[in-house]
Amino acid sequence: MKISDCLKIVMTVSFMAFSLSSFAESVSDSNPPLMEVACRYEMKVTRITKPKSSITNAWFFWRTPNIIQTQDADGDHGEIWERTANGSIQYRKLYHTDKTAVEYMPTDMPTNNMSFDWFKLSGMMSKEELNTLKMIKIKRVLGRSAELRKGEINGQAVEVLWLPNENLSANIIKKDKINRMELRLIEITPLSLAVKQPIAIGDINNYRQIDAADFGDMENDPFVKKLMSAEGHHHH
Fold first, then answer.
1. Of the N and C termini of the chain, which has fewer Cβ atoms inside 10 Å?
2. Would 119 be classed as within a structural domain?
């Protein structure tokens, strides 16, 4: 499972079914500046019915107030979101081995299950999703204060450990009758102190830049052919 697939599970598909009718113990609507952090996450998706199976992936997450970048453990693939001065979001998939960035324009994002919610992108959950869950208690996670929130929505049991000071998910567990998904924060450090740093924006801007909407006219391009073959579908 690629990092982009993991993020789609966390950011879109996994929480698409949330009802927003209950807002008890709401998360604050204030928007303090986001803490700049470097994180390492692990995601495990387990099929709990026969035939039982599981897949585990580790990946990196870097965040500044206006840039979010991810990279899978092998360093071949990543993603980057950049928030502009007018509030729009530029999203690119990064193929570091090929020195190529594929950009998805805002009009393409809903089709590709991509979120416009910066709070959700930067913390793995939106305020509305958090407010749907009931506050249970305060815990300590990696030496930090965390809110344990639980709920059951549309037949799915949901448990979240939320770091309120960092506006970040430390743990997300979702279970239904077929699958169990757990996203777990393994390591968090201030970005300035992180041993592993994100790829520099200047370096990414020097990659070959491709508009995803142009893929249909580039079927003979070696990179596009390889990508389509690897992902098993055509871009439109």
1. C
2. yes
